[in-house]
Amino acid sequence: RQFCSYKITTKTQNFCRNEYNLTGLCNRSSCPLANSQYATIREEKGRCYLYMKTIERAAFPRRLWERVLLNKNYEKALEEIDENLIYWPRFIRHKCKQRFTKITQYLIRIRKLTLKRQRKLVPLRRKIERRENRREEKALIAAQLDNAIEKELLERLKQDTYGDIYNFPIHAFDKALQQQDAESESESDAEKEEDEEDTDTREFVEADDSDLSDFEDMDKLETSSEEEEEEEEEVEKKASYSKSKGKTPLKGPARRKRRYIEIEYEEETEPTTKTKAA
Amino acid sequence: QAPPKAVPKTIENQRVYDETTVDPNDEEVAFDEATDEFAPYFNRQTVPKILITTSDRPRGRTVRFCEQLSTVIPNSHVYYRRGLALKRIIPQCIARDFTDLIVINEDRKIPNGLVLSHLPDGPTAHFRMSSVRLRKEIKRRGKEPTEHVPEVILNNFTTRLGHSVGRMFASLFPHDPQFIGRQVATFHNQRDYIFFRFHRYIFKSEKKVGIQELGPRFTLKLRSLQKGTFDSKFGEYEWIHKRREMDTSRRKFHL
């Protein structure tokens, strides 16, 4: 009920802020100011000291608190406390030992924790976070990601990184068709002059050649069996590819098939006219 | 008559010229890149093997994000970190032949940081990660990514720093993409923000391609680049983002 500058009151308890207090509560028995014979345990830099205050030194504030360094060994330190506080009241002895135990325990914990990984908490700064979010949104709009990705993919297609997988390019296809028309007419004329007796096999071969010239280089006009086989495989592969994916335009293969048929008819009619003329 | 329409000024137009911009024909840069830590990858001597992990006690979003990330990056494994120190994980990873380590840092149940470390003592990049969208939060998305190796697109990495970061990203993916899969992973740098997207593309014609977004998306902002593997105390930092010096001009970017 009296005033004490070290006293802190909370709803349920009174605490004592005095650093020499043994229990931390503000009681008559544990106030270092109220008792002329008192002892505490305090630790400094990881070492524990026993502080004692006796009546004889009450007149000399400077020498009031006598300090004893305790042993690092827990049991030996307890014995030291006992022998120093030998004729002291039970309460103080008991509380000293309790306090000492608690202190050693937390010192051990500190040492263990410093060995483990320590998490460093870095606070976010609200203004900076907001600024960065805004800038990110604007950068997102400026980036136009979809367009950029599409452009890049088309670039790669043009530069032929995908090789032969895709069976358009349709522009090149058109050009190739036109060229192939011109060539096949000249071709068929030349070959008709050479042999006229031939049946379907020869026409088949020629048709394949012209198809080849659509998709490979225009310049290569050699008729080797290997190329035929390759061409047939390619045809099959492309046809199967288009069927499996189902999304490639039908124009490509369908067109080619139509072309194929047209060429046959051309050649069939021509010999008849030629023989008639002859 | 009206005067001709002027070209509008954008931040990209007005960008402060960075002296470390890489010239495509620069020999010194080419030589550097042939001898830096990624040379074995680019010479096809090593196959990338990635370890993805998180900070302690990851929450649901982070866990799901890790799983999705591991489906996007081929040959990657997710391991949970139950309180293990990174310094001890790294030698173990090197022993088991991992080439890259990704640590996703989490805060308040969302992932917000990424540490990407190239393992046999390669550079470590620390990013701030934002706007993470899981697969189910992306509208109009396609189905699951398949197991095919995706292609990689790296856009707009112009400076030396940008180049090294770009190479770090490229070394995550195996070198030969499988074009049958038609999947592409894009790292697009714009104003120092790196946007990651994962799409499936289809060529509708020669001039038109359609893309469909699958896979998670996130944005990264580089915070620091360290020379060696992850070491916060003794590491040699090649680049750190210093707010007071580097954020002064709106038109100056570093990547």
What can you tell me about this protein's structure?
The complex is a heterodimer of chains A (278) and B (255). Helices cover 57% and strands 9% of the residues of chain A. Chain A is mainly alpha-helical and 278 residues long. The longest helix of chain A has 27 residues, at 251-277. With 255 residues, chain B is of the alpha/beta class. Chain B is built from 6 helices and 10 strands; from the N terminus they run ααβαβαββββαββββα. Chain B has helices at residues 27-35, 39-42, 60-72, 86-95, 160-170, 243-246, and strands at 50-54, 76-78, 100-107, 110-118, 124-133, 151-155, 183-190, 193-203, 209-226, 237-240. In chain B, strands 1, 2, 3, 4, 5, 6, 7, 8, 9 and 10 form a 10-stranded mixed beta sheet that branches. The longest helix of chain B has 13 residues, at 60-72. Chain B is globular and about 75 Å long. Chain B starts with 26 loop residues before the first helix and ends in a 9-residue tail after the last helix. Chain A binds chain B through residues 116-117, 128, 132-133, 135-136, 138-140, 142-143, 145-146, 148-150, 152-154, 156-157, 162-163, 165-166, 168-172, 247, 249, and chain B through 10-12, 83, 85-86, 128, 130-131, 151, 153, 155, 179-180, 184, 186, 188, 190-193, 195, 197, 199, 201-207, 209, 211, 219, 221, 243.
Residues in helix, % of chain B: 10-25%
Largest β sheet strand count, sense and barrel closure of chain A: 3 strands, antiparallel
Name the shape of chain A in a single word: rod-shaped
What name does the CATH topology of the domain at 7-115 in chain A carry? Answer: Enolase-like, domain 1
The name of the CATH architecture of chain B is: 3-Layer(aba) Sandwich
CATH superfamily of chain B: Brix domain
**Mind telling me the C-alpha Rg of chain A?**
50 Å
Helix and strand element order of chain A: EEEEEHHHHHHHH
Q: Could you give the count of β-strands of chain A?
A: 5
Tally of contiguous helical segments of chain B: 6
Largest interface, C-beta within 8 A: A-B, 33 and 36 residues
Give the CATH architecture of the domain at 7-115 in chain A.
2-Layer Sandwich
